[in-house]
Structure formats: C-alpha cells, structure tokens
C-alpha cells in the first residue's frame, strides 16, 4: 500500500516522540512491503514562532492532501498564562480538527499486567479494564461562539450541538460496541444542559438500530467517580467534546501512565493520529518522554487502513517492551531507557 | 444561640439521611444550650408530585426567612430519561441556589485512616490528602441561556461569567487558603475557553492581595488526572460551576465513599448545607444510605455560625463512628449498621 502521511510534530516533546513512531512506521513499510511517504509540517507554538500562525496554510494544505496525519503535541507555557495572547498554539490543533472534519476522537484505554502495580489504583479494581472513549471533537463549547465584553469584564462560550453532529459519532460508537462487549454508556449532564438532553434523545433513537447493544446513561459527575471506582464496567463511552477531554485524561490513570494512551481522530475524508498527552514542556529535550502513546497512535493509523497484521505487529512490540521493562522513566523508575532507545527497541522488533 | 433552620429533605434517600442530621443538631442544641427551630419544606420531585413545582413559593419563602437551609438530595430517574420533561427536580435545586445567591459551594475532601484501605486508590497515594474545593455555584453553563431549535434538531447552552462573579468567590478561596496550607490552584480550560481566560486574568489580579498564598493553574483535563495521581498536592482548588461539579465527585473516591462528603453553599445573606451525593434512588427506604455526608454538612452549618466547639463535637462523633466501624454498608461491608442506627449512634455521642 502507498500512503502519504503528513507529520506534524508540534511543540514540547512532540518532535522527539513523533520521531520514534515515524521510525516504527518506516520499519513496518520495510517489512510488509508498503510505501509510506512522510511529509513534515509546522503547527502550534513552533509555527507561531516562525510564521505567526499556529496552523499555516501550507500545513493545512498538506494535511488535506495526505492520506493521514501523524500529530505530536501542542502547547507552550508562554501562552497559557497570558490570557491576552491573541494567537495561541491550541488554535492550530482546533482549527485542524475542524477543517479536516475530524468529528470522532477515539481513545482506547486498557491495562498492562506488568504495569498494574504502578497505577495509583488498586490492582483488583483495574485488572482487565478495557474501554474505548468516543469523544465528539468538532462541536460543543470548543467551537461555539466566544465573546468578551468591550470592557473586558465578562466573557462567554457557547456550547451547541445539532442532531446531525450527534448522529454521526453515535453510529461509530454503536458499531464499535457491536465489535466489542456490546455496551454503550452515554455520558452527559441531561439534568442541567439542553444540549445533553438533545444527546440523550438522539442517542436513544439511534439505539433502536442497534438492538444488540445495551445502552445506559451516566451524568458526567457520576461518570468521573465511576471511572475510578469501577472502570471495568465500561465498554464504549460516548460523550461530547468537553466531557470527553476531561474523562479521557482521567481514564489515563488506569493504565498507569498517560504516556501510553493513543487516539485516532476520524472524519469522513481525513484521519489524524495523536497521543492524548500534551506537549509536556518541562520534559522537552531530556529524552524522558514516553514514545509509546505516539507509537500506538501509529498502530491506530495502520488499523485505519485495514493493515491489521501490521498494526498488531506494532502493538506486540509495545507489549514486549513493557514486559521486558524497556520503558521510559514514567513507568520504569529504576532502570529506565531514553525516548530514543525505546524507539530503537520498538523499531527493531518490527 | 437561636437558629431557624429550613429542612428540605427532597428526593430518594434525602429524607432518611436528613432525619439523622436533624437528630444530631437537636442533640447539639440540647447539650450546648441553643435553640434550633426546624421547619420542613418540599423540594424536587417530591414537590413536583404534590404541587407541580420543584421549588414551591412557600419553600423559597421559608428558606429566605431562615438562618440556614439543611438540604437532602434531589432527583428522580423518571425525569432523567425523559428529555422532554418540562419540569425537572433539579430545577428546584438550581433555582434555590440562584434565588438565595449561594455563589460559593465549599467541598472539603479528606481521608480517614480507617478507610484508607477501602479507597480504590493505593494507601500511599492518598494518606494525608486534605483539600477543599471552592466551586462557583450560580454562574457558568448551569445558568446561561438555554435553547432548543423549533424543529428540535439543535440545542445550546451558554456559559458566561463576569469579573464580579469570579471576584467574590476568589476572595473566599484565597482567605481559606490563608487559613490552610497557603496554596490555591485555579482549574480552568484557558487554552480553549474565553470564560476560563477571564477567570485566569481576574484571579491573577486578586492574587496580588494575597501575597502569602501560592497560586497555580491547571487545565481541567490535567486536574482530573492529578486528582488521582497525586491528590496530596492540592490545598484549595478554585473552579467554575461545571468543572467543580465533575472534580468534586471525582475527588470523593479519595475518601473511600461519596457518602462522606459534605458541602456548604454560601452567599452574602443565606447559606445552605448539603451532602454532595445525589438522591441515590435505588437505595431509597432500604436503610443503607450513609448519613455521614449530611451530618458533616450539619457540622459545616455550625461552623458557619461560629459554633466551632459544637461543630467539632459532631466531627469527633463521626470520626469515632468510623473508627469503631459503626458505619453503613458503603464503608463497612461485613457488619454494617442501618442509616438510622448510625444516626442514633452519632446523636448519642454528642
Ligand atoms: C490541547 C487541547 C486544546 C486539547 C483539547 O482540549 O482537546 C487536548 O487537551 C486534547 O485532549 O487533545
Ligand atoms: C443535581 C445536580 C443539578 C447537582 C449539580 O450538578 O450541581 C449535583 O450534581 C451537585 O453537584 O450538587
């Protein structure tokens, strides 16, 4: 197969981890006789610094023309604490999601036997937990109208959803549930929000087309609690943009490190693959960042093009590296390997 | 002291738990020679059933005239799954918060040595965790304009905040930090939301008046993760309404049971005290609900009127009950006591 992959390393640890997954993808192309072409482009703070634009035209163009986007991370502290900054790195990521129409962000969460004891949660609570979060990614309060009063003394963000936006991701989530344990949990705040009530109503209607899937509902506050109390109860979680952002970061503690969590963002035409962790500025350049989330995102990229054997080879390599303790310091305190060394090891296993 | 206390038991387990805290408050009045008058009123589904109004005029009147409100819980499943219901129990609670101007919801989270092993989190992560969450309670997406399109195919909720709304709760939170470990963490999503940027800007300005308090910032997704990874890092958390709802439920797992978490909601004139847990309909009438959250809310009521010795007597009673395992089944599986028995025991200790 021939694939053109746009590589957007972004900020902070983005470049160093993305480099490892590119290495791994190259090894996959080699072994399985594919032709993967990698085209780099700027995004985020890196792009602001050079071009004053977190998503330069050339980058968007490239992404639109490519078969897939491999994304690193975005964000820089110099913007976080400056509420007056007019241009922020995150705008690049949000615009990219919107322009590419990546409405579904898919975040699998699982545990690794070897890491159970590293989780802040007790082993018996998490062993066997295996869920996937379907987070709506191009709607809600992220993209609704924002405003600040002239005098700067008040501000607002609008959260809005249409039936259509809910429907398209709901179908994906129900289909995923059919391939899994056939349970779908809609997380919302229907006792307070009008948009949540629209979610509940729409999803209930769609559920009729998936009679083999059990549907239940949780308020987001309760879900945040259940995620820790009993993560094994979840199979597929479906939720809106902001709640999905919060819950998936929270869910990362189950696996033992956010450095392990990959995601795929898909739309009707394009697809992007990125770790769920951020740019982790304090770690930049130190060789301590965990490349596994990025490498597993690359595996999701392979899945997306139905290269299942290839994706499994990558996942097997990751599993072996964890089993053998060839890991960065977030999950291997005593005898850790550098970002690059872990990448080399994974590459070698393909 | 003479206090008029409006008692709003509400729905589900609300009445049975509130009964226990009224008992305990009566014991306090007895022992410390106060005069507490308790006036019951309807709210929530209970009020809808009888009067088709989740917050009848008479109830609001009573609350306004009272010195404090003791609130049970609210919510009934028959409304949750009916997105078309025009009247919902939660409207009663939200309207009450708004009408009484209860802008600050204060939720302390701590651990009990005896319960450390019951938490889903590992002992060493949580032992000694001790934080208080200041959640803004009368603004944000809870109270912004809501709308549904005529054709029912789209909906929206507006999140808005003014500098004034942020300022008044920020001062309370900074003052609390000064009395504690002098650290305040603002949780927001300033990399995406305009309202969050207003929060950050406003809180930074106010911080200058509290030079002895260390201020830091966390994005809400990261906060949801840090809450589990390292809850001991938090002293005072300040956040907006929706984020506070999610984070405080999540934080409940640290203490081992949501049935232990109390809250005070304060405004300039009125104050209300309620457990953070919900109406827990499945447990209603079974005598299994934990009355401690309600009893500790009563302790916060006493604190509010500067009845510190009295409040401490209630907290000591709770601590002893936990130490001696006189607990409901959520924290004492094998040899548990009923809601009423726990209440009797606490009453007896005053
Ligand atoms: C960087 C930020 C805008 C982004 C988000 O909130 O969506 C990130 O947290 C994520 O989850 O991908
Ligand atoms: C019942 C509901 C409206 C309420 C809220 O979301 O504020 C509850 O969850 C709480 O935290 O007090």
From TrEMBL, chains A, B:
<dbReference type="InterPro" id="IPR004429">
    <property type="entry name" value="Isopropylmalate_DH"/>
</dbReference>
<feature type="site" description="Important for catalysis">
    <location>
        <position position="142"/>
    </location>
</feature>
<feature type="domain" description="Isopropylmalate dehydrogenase-like">
    <location>
        <begin position="4"/>
        <end position="346"/>
    </location>
</feature>
<feature type="binding site">
    <location>
        <position position="245"/>
    </location>
    <ligand>
        <name>Mg(2+)</name>
    </ligand>
</feature>
<feature type="binding site">
    <location>
        <position position="135"/>
    </location>
    <ligand>
        <name>substrate</name>
    </ligand>
</feature>
<keyword id="KW-0464">Manganese</keyword>
<comment type="function">
    <text>Catalyzes the oxidation of 3-carboxy-2-hydroxy-4-methylpentanoate (3-isopropylmalate) to 3-carboxy-4-methyl-2-oxopentanoate. The product decarboxylates to 4-methyl-2 oxopentanoate.</text>
</comment>
<feature type="binding site">
    <location>
        <position position="221"/>
    </location>
    <ligand>
        <name>Mg(2+)</name>
    </ligand>
</feature>
<feature type="binding site">
    <location>
        <position position="97"/>
    </location>
    <ligand>
        <name>substrate</name>
    </ligand>
</feature>
<dbReference type="InterPro" id="IPR019818">
    <property type="entry name" value="IsoCit/isopropylmalate_DH_CS"/>
</dbReference>
<keyword id="KW-0560">Oxidoreductase</keyword>
<comment type="similarity">
    <text>Belongs to the isocitrate and isopropylmalate dehydrogenases family. LeuB type 1 subfamily.</text>
</comment>
<feature type="binding site">
    <location>
        <position position="107"/>
    </location>
    <ligand>
        <name>substrate</name>
    </ligand>
</feature>
<feature type="binding site">
    <location>
        <position position="249"/>
    </location>
    <ligand>
        <name>Mg(2+)</name>
    </ligand>
</feature>
<dbReference type="GO" id="GO:0003862">
    <property type="term" value="F:3-isopropylmalate dehydrogenase activity"/>
</dbReference>
<keyword id="KW-0479">Metal-binding</keyword>
<keyword id="KW-0520">NAD</keyword>
<dbReference type="Pfam" id="PF00180">
    <property type="entry name" value="Iso_dh"/>
</dbReference>
<keyword id="KW-0963">Cytoplasm</keyword>
<keyword id="KW-0432">Leucine biosynthesis</keyword>
<comment type="subunit">
    <text>Homodimer.</text>
</comment>
<protein>
    <recommendedName>
        <fullName>3-isopropylmalate dehydrogenase</fullName>
        <ecNumber>1.1.1.85</ecNumber>
    </recommendedName>
</protein>
<dbReference type="InterPro" id="IPR024084">
    <property type="entry name" value="IsoPropMal-DH-like_dom"/>
</dbReference>
<keyword id="KW-0028">Amino-acid biosynthesis</keyword>
<feature type="binding site">
    <location>
        <position position="221"/>
    </location>
    <ligand>
        <name>substrate</name>
    </ligand>
</feature>
<keyword id="KW-0100">Branched-chain amino acid biosynthesis</keyword>
<keyword id="KW-0460">Magnesium</keyword>
<comment type="pathway">
    <text>Amino-acid biosynthesis; L-leucine biosynthesis; L-leucine from 3-methyl-2-oxobutanoate: step 3/4.</text>
</comment>
<feature type="site" description="Important for catalysis">
    <location>
        <position position="189"/>
    </location>
</feature>
């Amino acid at each position: 197969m021939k694939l053109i992959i746009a590589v957007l390393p972004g900020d902070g640890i983005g470049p160093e981890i993305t480099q490892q997954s590119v290495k791994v993808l190259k090894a996959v192309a080699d072994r399985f006789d594919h032709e993967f072409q990698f085209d780099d482009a700027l995004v985020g703070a890196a792009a602001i610094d050079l071009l004053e634009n977190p998503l330069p035209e050339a980058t968007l163009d490239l992404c639109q023309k490519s078969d897939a986007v491999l994304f690193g991370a975005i964000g820089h502290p110099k913007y976080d604490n400056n509420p007056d900054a007019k241009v922020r790195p995150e705008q690049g990521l949000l615009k990219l999601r919107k322009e590419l129409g990546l409405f579904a962000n898919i975040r699998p969460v699982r545990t690794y036997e070897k890491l159970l004891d590293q989780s802040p949660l007790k082993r018996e609570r998490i062993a066997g937990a295996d869920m996937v979060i379907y987070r709506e990614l191009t709607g809600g309060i992220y993209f609704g109208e924002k405003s600040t009063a002239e005098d700067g003394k008040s501000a607002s963000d609008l959260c809005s959803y249409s039936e259509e936006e809910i429907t398209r991701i709901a179908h994906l989530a129900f289909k995923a549930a059919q391939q899994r344990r056939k349970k779908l949990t809609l997380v919302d705040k229907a006792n307070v929000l009008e948009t949540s009530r629209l979610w509940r109503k729409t999803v209930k209607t769609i559920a009729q087309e998936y009679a083999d899937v059990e549907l239940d509902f949780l308020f987001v506050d309760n879900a945040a609690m259940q995620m820790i109390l009993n993560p094994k109860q979840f199979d597929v979680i479906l939720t809106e943009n902001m709640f999905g952002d919060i819950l998936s970061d929270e869910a990362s503690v189950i696996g033992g490190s956010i450095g392990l969590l990959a995601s795929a963002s898909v739309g009707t035409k394009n697809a992007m693959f990125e770790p769920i962790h951020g740019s982790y500025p304090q770690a930049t350049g130190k060789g301590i960042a965990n490349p596994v989330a990025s490498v597993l995102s690359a595996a999701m990229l392979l899945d997306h093009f139905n290269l299942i054997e290839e994706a499994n080879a990558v996942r097997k390599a990751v599993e072996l590296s964890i089993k053998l303790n060839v890991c960065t310091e977030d999950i291997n305190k005593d005898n850790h390997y550098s970002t690059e060394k872990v990448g080399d090891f994974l590459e070698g296993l393909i």
